Amino acid sequence: MPLTLATTTPGEPEIFASLQGEGRSAGLPCTFVRLSRCNLACTWCDTAYTWRFDGDNRPHRDGMAFDRKANQVVLDEADVAARIMALGGNRLVITGGEPLLQGAALARMVTLLSGHTIEIETNGTVQPHAELDAMVSQYNVSPKLSHSGNAADIALIPERLLAWTNEPKAHFKFVISAPEDLAEVLDLIDRFALPKARVQLMPEGTSSAVLRQRELWLAPLCLQHGLGMTDRLHIHLYGDSRGT
Question: What is residue 199's predicted lDDT score, i.e. its pLDDT?
Fold first, then answer.
């Protein structure tokens, strides 16, 4: 089956070169592929155009719904691979939406690439496709806390969290909106033995001003609890925009 991608403009797939803005690879030049569709619905999601289409009433703080035809494009795996290769990079970040929902098609696409390190952004609820997993170097796992608006029984699946804990390629990134969110993170670290060396906290925000304000209280909390912190470099460089 082909891949379903998000778009930058109607009909134009969101495949682009930029610097990784978050997580362990922040600052590295990467090629990005943004897929469409997600099994969760975060109220603060900054890529709601990948899932909140007309008729989808799942809550979002902006209350916006997007036209599916204008915001989705379906491409053959070979076409996607050719566009990636044309950008000339050597590190690919596959993001979404939730990319692992299209694991089989992704596996076929990745086999067509040459010389790329593969990094996947995931909400941590979907088991990786076995053939794809063999080709992935890094998973950026971002389990969703209660402030995301997702019910814990669908967002924090115990068997999946345990599997990610035991996956050395997985690095955890928690979105933090307020200081009290940290209690949930510490509880998950304790319950699932998440290795602190692979945990980073990231402020929620889509403007430099909000990110900087939240980092002022987030940095001391990271120091206090021995956790990493990640910024959102792309927001500072390009703002909250597609294809960056």
Answer: 98
Tokens 């979907």 belong to residue? 126
The number of CA neighbours under 13 Å toward the Cβ of 21 is: 22
Provide the residue ranges of all domains of the chain, joining segments of one domain with +.
Answer: 3-174
Q: Convert the pLDDT of each residue in 64-80 to its tens digit.
A: 999 999 999 999 999 99
Query: Under DSSP, is residue 202 helix (H, G, I), strand (E, B) or coil?
Result: strand
For the stretch 18-34, pLDDT in tens is 999 999 999 999 999 99
Report how far residue 226's alpha carbon sits from residue 40's, in angstroms, rounded to the nearest whole number: 29
User: In the CATH scheme, what is the code of domain 3-174?
Assistant: 3.20.20.70
Element (H, E) at 117: strand 117-122
The pTM of the full predicted model, rounded to 2 decimals, is: 0.97
Alpha helices, DSSP H, located in the chain: 68-71, 77-87, 103-110, 130-133, 152-155, 158-165, 182-192, 208-225, 233-238
Plot region of 56 (φ>0 → left; ψ -120 to 50 → alpha; else → beta): beta
